[in-house]
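Quick one: structure for this chain?
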Amino acid sequence: MSLASTFRRIPAWLHGLLGACVLLGLLAYGAYWVDQSWPWQHFRTVENGVFYRSAQLGEDDLVDCIEGYRIKTVINLRSAIERARGGDWYAQEMRAIGRTGIRHVDVPLPEGLPPTPEQVTRLLAVMDDPASRPVLIHCEKGTIRSAAVEGLFRREYLHESGAEAFARIETWGRDLEADYPGIAAFIKQYVARRRR
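Got it. Here's what it folds into:
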């Protein structure tokens, strides 16, 4: 029996069901791709015109992002240790900054750890300044360190509770409580300045 004759013996309703499953699978994959990669990897608008976050962008993508979203400040959360590991990501970033003439701030956070009080002060000083906004923050993948700073932003500027901020932070499937409990605790327990 040939494959074609076997296929013809399948009831029509099953053909429709199989087609619907394939279509749903393609739609799910498309939604996943958009969430992960469009317009850039792990790009997220936290507050339109004020605060954005992403993974590390290449030079041209960073220029496109800066121009498209009118970014005035890029905050790099990656460390000198990461620069020493190699790759030209930092050189590309600095070329993009040079091409656009915007402000660049390094606030290196250790991988997997929340910002220190001094780093919080530094981040808030940038975000407090209306001339610095909109701000784009990034780390390597845009999922963990940038999530910590998104939590800080949500607590300070969107006046969300710890539970609200934690629930609204996008981590693209990463479990902060299980894998990065220090960052999870930072977001949930941080006390905004107006409440101190």
